[in-house]
Specification:
Elements lengths: L7 H23 L8 H26 L7 H17 L4 H26 L3 H20 L4 E2 L1 H4 L3 H8 L1 E2 L2 E2 H18 L2 H11 L1 H6 L4 H27 L1 E2 L7 H11 L11 H20 L4 H30 L1
Antiparallel strand pairs: 1-4, 2-3
């Protein structure tokens, strides 16, 4: 009798979906007065999750490709700063957004070229670019916040497009779903997605099949740059100002969300649905613990524990799948 073989993505996806449901149930029951289910709290989650979630979508694709990007913590606020300067110059915010997107892609292009040309670990290289861009940003901005309210107040349509509401639904969550669908189709229904998985699974085998591994990695970094630029603008509009500290900590939280979503740290395994669920799990845990009045340092501790647990579970599943396949 032929042995049943379960795809790793199926196991990871089921595990993540179960965790997502259990997490919601736990905080629905145990938060004081069931505040987690309060429409105001759910609305807050829908507004804040896309800030980190949209960037995490790109990080997930890159990790499936077998690489990392820590520079997002600096690229995001740098793009926000550039957008702010464009507003100060009198440029229409819609045009400013259009101009910032290719600038974000350029940051990603630099990361991609560094990684593929040097062959050094992307974790170290993007850590270096994060520190470089952060130092440069702190220098040119002098770490002073810059209000943009006076520049965008004459463009209510722009505010509504990025941070408005459609009925009770914040537009930010719709943008998150839009990017998730587009990137999901790119990853699962397009030849490029096959190249990403092949590159993350085995670079040498991918090259032998004719995949341009260098180009695939570079494009993944450029996608992240575009997403950082968009989120930097969206976050600035929501806050009404530029702040040099935007995006601080995003580099680790995005990796945590992607890992919780079932993406392998070694590449080649992951799904867009899993990444989305992982993002929401991290945000729900963070939000639920705050509602339960857990101190801030306690929230970080629980998230750290959750990441470790998921890495252990994913490694265990990998061994199980390998044993069944053998």
């Amino acid at each position: 009798m032929q042995r049943l073989r379960i795809k790793p993505i199926t196991l990871y996806g089921l595990n993540t979906a179960i965790t997502f449901i259990v997490t919601i149930l736990i905080f629905s029951v145990f938060t004081p007065d069931h505040l987690f289910l309060d429409p105001r709290n759910l609305g807050s989650l829908a507004k804040l999750t896309p800030d980190i979630g949209i960037v995490a979508l790109g990080i997930g694709i890159l990790m499936i490709c077998g690489e990392f990007d820590l520079s997002i913590a600096s690229v995001l606020p740098f793009c926000s700063y550039i957008f702010t300067q464009l507003l100060i110059l009198g440029i229409n915010p819609f045009i400013g957004l259009i101009l910032v997107l290719p600038i974000g892609a350029s940051f990603g292009l630099i990361n991609g070229i560094l990684v593929v040309s040097t062959g050094l670990p992307s974790f170290i290289l993007t850590l270096a670019t994060m520190l470089f861009w952060r130092g440069l940003l702190y220098g040119v901005s002098r770490m002073m916040p810059i209000s943009i309210l006076s520049y965008i107040s004459n463009y209510p349509a722009f505010e509504n497009v990025l941070t408005g509401q459609i009925g009770p639904i914040p537009v930010q969550i719709l943008w998150f779903l839009f990017f998730a669908v587009i990137l999901g189709l790119l990853l699962h229904q397009n030849r490029f997605g096959n190249w990403v998985y092949a590159t993350g699974s085995n670079q040498e085998a991918a090259r032998a099949m004719g995949v341009n591994v260098r180009l695939v990695k570079t494009l993944c970094y450029m996608i992240i740059g575009v997403l950082c630029a968009f989120v930097g603008v969206m976050q600035s509009v929501r806050l009404g100002s530029f702040a040099a500290t935007q995006g601080i900590g995003f580099e680790l939280k995005t990796i945590a969300a992607v890992v919780v979503g079932g993406t392998s740290l070694t590449g080649g395994v992951g799904s867009m649905l899993g990444i989305c669920l992982g993002i929401f799990i991290i945000r729900i845990v963070e939000n639920g613990l705050i509602l339960m009045q857990v101190p801030v340092f306690g929230v970080e501790t629980f998230i750290g524990i959750a990441v470790v647990v998921f890495v252990v579970i994913n490694n265990y599943m990998s061994r199980q799948v390998a044993r069944q396949a053998g």
